[in-house]
Amino acid sequence: MGTNRSEVWRLIQQLRSLGVEVEGRPATGYRLIKVPDLLLPAVLSRLTEGTIFSQRICHYFKVSSTNTAAVEAAATDAPEGSVFVAEQQTAGRGRGKHDWASEKSVGIYCSVLLRPTLPPSEMLPLSLAAGLAVQAAVQEINADAQPDLKWPNDLLIGGKKFCGILTEMNAEPMRVRYVVVGIGINVNQTSFPSELQPIATSLRMATGREWSRVELCAALLRALDREYRNLLQSPGARADILERFQYHSSTVTGRRVHVEEDGGYDGVTEGLDDRGFLRVRTDDGLRTILSATVRAK
């Protein structure tokens, strides 16, 4: 091989630091035990062939936030369909300036860059469509899993959150320059900090089995490609998205909720309006929720 033992040992340590399981035997050398479930571009590109996401996939072992990386790339004219995935985030962001816990190589931390020829008013349906893409991807891998869509940007299993979506837009009054859709999925976590235990779960904890992050991420990108093409090309796409979102959500119709705006108030959800905003019936009448946090009671 043209190398010495110390160089081989150094390379083996690099592989181990990436999660590759290598067994060392004094008499026979090294043996590969397990290849890690890393979100590598070469693998994801092959599994997403034919989608807009297969050509430019940027992978980080550690990054502050995939959304931040995507926004910075968008500002330098990165092409539509660029994908940014990370094994770990040091400053993962959720909606409303919340942090997103991003443990190393157990979740999917993924952001995609889109440049849709749509007005800014269509961006909420796009965010809802991203939720539908996550739901479809999870069920493609495990049909027994039953994700519940929570308006506007979360997915739950067993009443606990396993996925959050953060959509960030740069736009003029009538034209979108770019949209970054960030998706964080708790996949193979086996525990959470005590403060998150009542509200958070992972697919592994909910189903009792380990998931392939590569398979799930590829399924997600394929599903997101379908939803995005549908929104751009089908005249009735918005109504279809809203109808499917309501069908897959247990909270947007007939659920008693607390809305955290204007000092907070209670009501009962009455579905989505034709723009995708949530309607809540209160003692004072019907109110339309644009961006407030809504919690089921």
The proportion of strand residues reads 25-35%
Judging by the overall fold, what is the CATH architecture of the largest domain?
2-Layer Sandwich
What is the count of β-strands?
14
Q: How large, in whole angstroms, is the Cα Rg?
A: 21 Å
Kindly give the count of domains: 3
Give the strand order, joined by hyphens, for the main sheet.
Answer: 3-4-5-9-8-7-6
Helical region count?
7
Q: Layout of SSEs?
A:
Elements: H1 5-17, E1 21-25, E2 29-34, H2 41-47, E3 57-60, H3 66-75, E4 83-86, E5 107-114, H4 123-141, E6 148-150, E7 154-157, E8 160-171, E9 176-186, H5 203-207, H6 213-233, H7 237-247, E10 253-260, E11 265-272, E12 278-282, E13 285-289, E14 293-296
Parallel strand pairs: 3-4
Antiparallel strand pairs: 1-2, 4-5, 5-9, 6-7, 7-8, 8-9, 10-11, 10-14, 11-12, 12-13
Helix pairs in contact: 2-6, 4-6, 4-7
What this model shows, in words?
By secondary structure, this protein is α+β, with helices and mostly antiparallel strands. It is 29% helix and 29% strand. The protein has a seven-stranded mixed sheet, with helices on both faces. The protein has a five-stranded antiparallel sheet with strand order 13-12-11-10-14, with no helix packed on it. The protein is globular, with a radius of gyration of 21 Å. It has seven helices and 14 strands.
